[in-house]
Write the structure tokens for this entry.
Amino acid sequence: DVRIDSAAVHPLLGSRLRLPLSRETRFETRFSPTKPAYLKDHQLFDTIVVPGASHVAMVLCAAKETLSTDKFVLEDLFFPQALVLTDQSEFTLQTILIPDDNALGFRVVSLADDADETDPEAWTLHFSGRVRALAGDQNQTTSPVEIEALKESCSRELLASEFYSTSRSLGYRMGPSFQWLGSIWQGEGQALAEMH
């Protein structure tokens, strides 16, 4: 019998499930077209698609809760299937962390409301990989010198408004929750973006 720890509900992860005799850590939450509210701002051809960034954020929050640090490296990332939300659809999402050598394996899975939760085939995998904590001296940042060198090799500047306008014309609508870009510099096979 799985019990939910109702004492602590994380705003993105939901509740941590209590799993006796298991080394896994699981969080469970609900997604629908209206919850979390930011989902309405991420649409492809007028249909809400849960962004990969949402899955990444869930894994990072779960890792922070589990490992008591906020410096991580994500490895072997795989997004096998998007989570598409139609008008009345609701899904249970679980973020699962599994001890794996010096890291944690992770999975983000969903179950449609009308599906049989006891059927393993009813659960859909949306995101998997590994997360490991960085040691204090492994903090990887880019120096201002490296950024300036990148800017020099990316000579074509694209305004964020142009980027979002082009995206909209292709059927990809990003509302205010997903408009983080400032300037974008493009080069041969590379790009640099300022985010806010």
Summary: The chain has a mean pLDDT of 89. The longest strand covers residues 91-100. The two ends are 44 Å apart (CA to CA). Residues 52-67 form the longest helix (16 residues).
